[in-house]
Every structure is written in structure tokens, then in C-alpha cells.
Amino acid sequence: MPRVSREKIMLIASITFLLVIFLKRGHQERRYEFFIPGREPKQVWDLLADFRNIARLNQRIRKWQLGSENTDKKGNWEYEVTSYEAMAGDWLFGLNVNRGRVSVTADDPPRRYSIESVFKTESFRGLFLVDNASKVTIERKQRDGETGALVAEVVSMNCPLLFSQLCYAETDANRKDFIKNVKYYFDV
Fold first, then answer.
1. pLDDT tens per residue across span 18-36
2. What's this model's pTM, rounded to 2 decimal places?
């Protein structure tokens, strides 16, 4: 049996170590905030709570399917959804497939509402699985002397460290377009 040199063993061990480090999941978090003057939080919540509207406002979503849906007596509801979303280079890497649950809650009506979602995303033709979570709060606030709805979102994900910058870039581009479309919807 041929003997493997110490250098080859060290090279293989180093490459394995680097792959483990770069493919290890990290924790990325982004915060987004925008203000819609002259609108009540419930108006914005009604728009953002329904995935049919999300699919119209997020132009990266190519198609989607609603799964189960449950509503309680307070008007809060949960639903499961699967969406197929474009990303940079989707012609090569395929669409992201997002499967998740969305919880829509009237926290303190008419002043505060929230939307929480948890998704598992298959990226790069299913090669990577990324867990995503989002918490959106919509509150009545004042800015520059005008009352309106402040929309704040915290997005958390666990992309592999090697791809964390791509995850940040994709999330930022997605939210930039989405926020622009929401503001356009409300004539802001």
C-alpha cells in the first residue's frame, strides 16, 4: 500500500478545516425601517398581512402556494406558504424555494400590529438550506410633526459563513425593492 506523505495529509486536513469553517452556518441579522405618513397602522397591516399582497409587492416572487390557514376570534391568523423567488444569478442557481409559516397578530389595536414569519429556504438548487425569520412591527408614530405608521423589520438568517455577504446583499436588495413598492402603494 502506498504511503501518504505528511504534506498531503496536512493539505487535506487544511482544506477540510477551511471547508468546515466556510460552510458552517453563521448568524446574520438585518434591520429595516420606513415611515408611511398619514396612514394608520391597521391599513399597512392589512396590506402586509395577506401573502397575496406580498407576492404583488415583492417582484422577485415568481409563484406561490398557500397551505393551511387558521384564524382566531381576535382576528389573528396563521398560514403556511411556499414561494419560489428569484435571486441574483437565478438562471444558473435556480429559484429559492421558501417554505414557512406566517403569524399575523393585532398586538395593541389600533396602535400596534405585528407579523412574524419563519421560513426554510432552499438555495442553489437545494444545495444549501437557510433558516430565515422575520418580525415586522407596525406602530402609530409621529415624524416631522406628522402622524403615520412606522414599519420596522428585523430579519435573521443562518447562511453559511462563506455566503454571508451574498445573503446580506440578497436581503438588502429584496427589502429595498419591497419597501419602494409599499411606499408607492401608499403614494409616499
1. 777 666 778 889 999 999 9
2. 0.82
Q: Which three cell numbers stand for residue 146?
A: 406628522
- What Rg value do the Cα atoms of the chain yield, rounded? 21
Q: Give the Cα separation of 156 and 158 in Å (integer).
A: 7
Helical packing angle, 41-49 and 164-185, nearest 10°: 120
Phi, psi (rounded to 5 degrees) for 143: -140, 130
Range 27-49 average pLDDT: 95
The model's pLDDT over 129-155, given as tens digits with 9 standing for 90+, comes to: 889 999 999 999 999 999 999 999 999
| Residue 53: other Cβ atoms inside 10 A | 15
**Distance in angstroms (rounded) separating the CA atoms of residues 149 and 143:** 10
Domains of the chain, each with CATH number or no CATH: 26-185 (3.30.530.20)
List CB contacts of 97: < 8 A, sequence separation 6 or more: 82, 83, 84, 121, 122, 126
